[in-house]
Every structure is written in structure tokens, then in C-alpha cells.
Amino acid sequence: MKRILFITANRLGDAVISSGVLAELRRLHPDARITVACGPVAASYFEPCPSVDRVIVVSKKRYDLHWLGLWWGCVGTFWTRIVDLRGSGVSLFLPTLHRRILRGGRRPGARIGHLAALFRGRKTLMPEIWCRPEQVDLAAEILPATRRYCALAPTANWEGKIWPAPHFIEVGRAMQARGLTPVIFYGPGEAEKALAQPVIEALAASGLEKGRGAIDLGGEGSLGLVGALLRRCALFVGNDSGLMHLSAAAGTPTLGLFGPSRASEYAPTGRKAHFVAAPGPEGKAPIAGLAVATVLAEIETLLAGEGEAHHDG
Question: Residue range 201-224: average pLDDT?
């Protein structure tokens, strides 16, 4: 039996971007069993993939001892192929027939374009999501088809990437006026919950009389379920984050909001993926400068289904 080791990202956004590599490995080796090594946040993202029979969680340790732990967990297997997106030395000390290592560190250009260099033909490796049948069924119970939903993701792992909460509230109210129920997504932990709370409370109050109060989906669900929930939304609007990339991979019309982070490197990828960026030099523009009117105009384009668009504000 063919066995493949796929060493990928610690952060969710990078992990979702890398999923196109996993999809390509599955296409090239449909009968292979794949082991994924990734950070703890991304583990539940890869677990539903049908070809994945093991996910090794790589939690950072002092003196890079996490790599020693990964080596110890993998050295007893002879691998048909190893693909290492972390540029770690560990993959050089594991037995394999074929090895591909992506050099670590940041470099210009779209991250998804760097991954294409691992395969002949250098085609774009589109991200994917995987959901178990029970996750799809549960998502249908949580977000029944009796309503239309707008996903809002008002948090991020860095304050500089967070569009102000009052702006998200204004967008959410505009969606309520269009008949969409806001659904609030955010990451795990109390800090993310606190960032999302003002948006949840304001939209819950404004939607009561119309029966479209905001739905708080929390930040602790498995990512297979989150992906299934995103697929049930007519629209996603959110900061540059792992949830933004997850939404684009799910095929949901996705609008990513960019300020000082670089859309040229991390714009969402997908047939229905759009972004808007705050005015100013890329990498330095404050996200608060991104006008609500600009975002609402791009939402109109998304809801009208006018194809791909990438715009600066």
C-alpha cells in the first residue's frame, strides 16, 4: 500500500491554502493512505478527508523538539512520498522513494502560486474542504433552508487585520434589510469571542422585530462542520483570516477584507472569491480606512453573481 506523508501548516489559513496540494496527491495516488502533520488548529480540517487515515498534531516546543517528536512518530514507516511544506529538516531523515520540500520563509507572490511549483505543469492547486455526512446533516439542522444566511467573520489573529465592529454591524443590518440572517463565525478562545460579541449583540437586537436576529455559531466547532455551515450561506464577509480561506474553499461567495496584510500574497482563492483592500500602500494601509460603502458595493457584485473580481478600495 502506498503511504504519503504531508507536512503542512500550523495556521488555519495556510493549511486551507495547502489543501490543493493534498487534493493533487489524492488525484495522483488515489489508493494511497495519507498521514497529515499539521498544527493543532488545523487538525479537524484535515480529519474528514477520505484519504487521510492519520493526523499528527505538531505542537510547537522549545528548541524545535516538536520536529524530533514528528520524526519519531514517522521513522518506522517507509513512505512512498513525502511532501514537506514547512521546509523542515525532519523530512530529510525519513525513508521515502520521493521527496518534495518547499523552502520555508516568506517571499513575494501569491502563496498558492508557490505550491504549484511542487508538481509538473505548475497549475493552480485550488483549495478544498471535506465534510463527513453527519456534519452535513447537522449543518442543515443548525441553518435550515427556510432562511437565507450571510456569514460574518469579524475577528482575526492580529488586531491590525480587524475591520471595526461598527462597520460589520452596518453591513449586517444592510443584509438583514435584504432578508438575510447574519451568522457570526469566529475562532476558538475567549479573546475571539469577546471581539465578536459587540457584533452579535447589535445584530441580534436589530433583527428581532424582523425575525432575523444574528446567529452565534461559537468558535469551538470542528472545521468539517464549520465548512458545511459555510456552504449553507449565501455570502461571507470577513477579515483576512483562516475562516475567509475556508469559506472560499467551500465555494461560498466570499468577500475578504484587507488592510495591512497583503492581498497579493493571501487573497482568497476560489471561483466566487473576491477581496477589497483599504486605500493606501499594500502592507501599510490601515483597515479602518476601508469604507462601508465600498464593501456594500462589492457585496452587490457578489450577490448578483457577476464572476470573479479583485478590487482595491
Answer: 83
